Amino acid sequence: MVNVEVIAATGEALVQAAGQPQAAQAQPEVLLEDLGVDSLALLELVETLQSRLAIVVPDEVTARIRTVADLQDAVGQLVAAPSSETTPKGTRS
Hints:
The model has no long low-confidence stretch (mean pLDDT 88). By secondary structure, the protein is mainly α. It contains four helices and no strands. The protein is 52% helix and 0% strand.
């Protein structure tokens, strides 16, 4: 399940990317394209979320994002996943 922080962050980022306030309340099944989010806007949207939530969204994940639910699910999984960046390379846990 996607947490409230992820829903709020994606809603705010969607408003910024789509340029329309109603994008924040978009239903999960709505295509990002229908909100006016093209491929460039999607990249900007992902960058905004990476910065705000301190995550890294791999390009292959970004390429699969088509709907609001896809975006929320991808971001939610990355927020919930333990960060591999906290463990220095070359060290073992």
